[in-house]
């Protein structure tokens, strides 16, 4: 038996990430091994989780993962932990298609109790019907307790406690508003930047939460049998040399995707920002990230750009996702439209000027095979030369969308972030 629970909310912007980070750090400071998870395809929350808990956070996603693989991943990483905390995505029941892909679906599949974070800034006893609805909307979802956010006084909290007591759900405390614990945001969500001391913010959140949230009660009511985990059998390791871009410009990777690469051979990380050239490789993985924030460094690193282009021109195998695809193009423009030279292998020019958000789950069909992933970017691009487009792309509801997947020589590039941690067949496209 160990405490394991999912932190969810009725809607986005309820403060569940700040509370999650505070709890992760608070429990880590108690000397506990805390394993974080994140519902959905988010890359940035997992990085904050990892910093807070001093343990690598792992994505759980029922659109991109089968139920069996979801359970395997959860069991694999939660087995050695003392406490397991999963942060939900958006509102509890918000999925790509009704509840499909929602936090609620993951909670049900893994039999996790839900701690509901409610923004009660402008509410008192009226939280009762709100909480009642979340408690009774779906019989498979177990609301174990409620934390009230943006509540500044004990007298305000008393009204909220009354509501919980009348509903038969455990009140777990409240969190006053505080500018000191706000996590800075950026256009892809919460930020990762050297400009901010995230460790100090997370430490402050832990101290802030400890004053008014009953953490011991959370641990008590969330104890569940440990997830069953059967380790995978031995797999003969391949001999490929795999180069993975990994730095402040390219950092959007899934842990299980990297594990799949390690089964194929030796993985070597390198930095397109700082290193002089890419390492010798049989496969190059250019992940997404924030290349638009490092245009000067990327463009002036001409030896790196030349080495990547030479590798591509010689038929080297490449998987380029979103920011990685942008890097392989001719130019990448900043928010003012000023273009910076990139690798120049793909005949595309991308820019952040007049960018608009494009996001959603995607399923790609190529030669009868289907692959799942997601699209999330603000940049736009235009083709400057002939490029082969492969496959058809659909959204989560099965509607075809205009998102090109390019193939040139050994390069497959698109805005798509594919999850191949379960099957690995995207590596064979």
How would you describe the overall organization of this protein?
With 429 residues, the protein is α/β, with parallel strands linked by helices. The protein folds into 2 domains: 2-224, Rossmann fold (3-Layer(aba) Sandwich); 240-428, Class I glutamine amidotransferase (GATase) domain (Rossmann fold), CATH 3.40.50. The chain has helices at 16-29, 44-53, 67-78, 103-109, 127-136, 154-167, 198-212, 215-221, 255-264, 295-300, 302-313, 323-328; strands spanning 2-8, 34-39, 58-60, 83-87, 114-119, 143-149, 170-175, 185-186, 189-190, 223-224, 240-245, 250-252, 265-270, 283-286, 288-289, 317-321, 331-333, 339-341, 348-351, 358-366, 369-377, 380-383, 388-389, 392-395, 400-401, 405-408, 411-414, 416-418. Strands 1, 2, 3, 4, 5, 6, 7 and 10 form an 8-stranded mixed β-sheet that branches. It has a 7-stranded mixed β-sheet with strand order 13-11-14-16-27-26-23. Helix 5 links the parallel strand 5 and strand 6. The longest helix has 15 residues, at 198-212. It is globular, with a radius of gyration of 23 Å. Residues 6-188 form the CobQ/CobB/MinD/ParA nucleotide binding domain.
């Amino acid at each position: 038996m160990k405490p394991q629970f999912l932190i969810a909310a009725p809607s986005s912007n309820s403060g569940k990430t700040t509370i999650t980070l505070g709890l992760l750090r608070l429990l880590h400071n108690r000397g506990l091994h805390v394993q974080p998870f994140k519902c959905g395809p988010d890359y940035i929350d997992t990085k904050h989780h990892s910093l807070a808990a001093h343990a690598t956070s792992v994505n759980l996603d029922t659109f991109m993962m089968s139920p069996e693989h979801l359970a395997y991943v959860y069991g694999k990483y939660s087995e050695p932990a003392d406490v397991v905390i999963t942060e939900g995505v958006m509102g509890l029941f918000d999925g790509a298609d009704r509840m499909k892909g929602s936090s609620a679906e993951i909670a049900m599949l893994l039999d996790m109790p839900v701690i509901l974070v409610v923004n009660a800034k402008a509410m008192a006893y009226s939280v009762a019907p709100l909480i009642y609805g979340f408690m009774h909307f779906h019989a498979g979802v177990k609301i174990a307790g409620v934390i009230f956010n943006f509540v500044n006084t004990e007298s305000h909290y008393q009204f909220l406690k009354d509501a919980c007591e009348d509903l038969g759900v455990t009140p777990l405390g409240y969190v006053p508003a505080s500018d000191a614990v706000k996590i800075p945001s950026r256009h892809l969500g919460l930020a990762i930047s050297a400009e901010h001391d995230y460790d100090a913010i997370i430490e402050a959140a832990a101290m802030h939460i400890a004053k008014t949230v009953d953490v011991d009660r959370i641990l008590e009511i969330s104890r569940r049998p440990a997830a069953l985990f059967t380790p995978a059998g031995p797999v003969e390791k391949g001999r490929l040399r795999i180069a993975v871009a990994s730095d402040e410009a390219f950092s959007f990777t899934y842990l299980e995707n990297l594990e799949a690469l390690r089964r194929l051979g030796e993985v070597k990380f390198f930095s397109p920002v700082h290193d002089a050239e890419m390492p010798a490789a049989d496969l190059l993985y250019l992940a997404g990230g924030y290349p638009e924030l490092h245009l000067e460094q990327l463009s002036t690193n001409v030896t790196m750009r030349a080495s990547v282009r030479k590798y591509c021109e010689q038929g080297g195998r490449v998987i380029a996702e979103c920011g990685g695809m942008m890097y392989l193009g001719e130019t990448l423009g900043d928010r003012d439209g000023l273009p910076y030279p990139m690798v120049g292998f793909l005949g595309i020019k991308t820019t952040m000027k007049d960018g608009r958000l494009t996001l959603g789950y995607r399923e790609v069909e190529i030669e009868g095979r289907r692959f799942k992933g997601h699209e999330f970017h603000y940049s736009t691009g235009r083709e400057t030369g002939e490029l082969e487009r492969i496959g058809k792309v659909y959204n989560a509801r099965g509607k075809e969308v205009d998102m090109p997947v390019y193939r040139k020589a050994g390069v497959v590039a698109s805005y798509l972030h594919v999850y191949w941690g379960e099957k690995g067949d995207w590596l064979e496209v």
